[in-house]
Design a protein that fits this description.
64 residues, 2 helices, 2 strands, globular
């Protein structure tokens, strides 16, 4: 089973994360990559520091 690491980042606006059109969460391999794609109102956020329901969703997503 794959897991998340502190070095994995998403773009988070305090409520939800940036997603692809199919609903999958956009996952970045490091902070610099996330900062490069940063959107207005969203910040680069470590995956392991997200609310539990988003962490669970991400773990499900990467283990598909």
């Amino acid at each position: 089973m794959k897991t998340l690491f502190k070095t994995d980042f998403v773009l988070y606006n305090g409520v939800d994360v940036i997603r692809f059109s199919n609903g999958d969460i956009v996952l970045f391999g490091d902070r610099q990559e996330a900062l490069y794609d940063q959107k207005v109102g969203a910040i680069a956020w470590p995956c392991t520091d997200l609310p539990t329901h988003l962490v669970d969703e991400l773990i499900t997503q990467i283990n598909r």
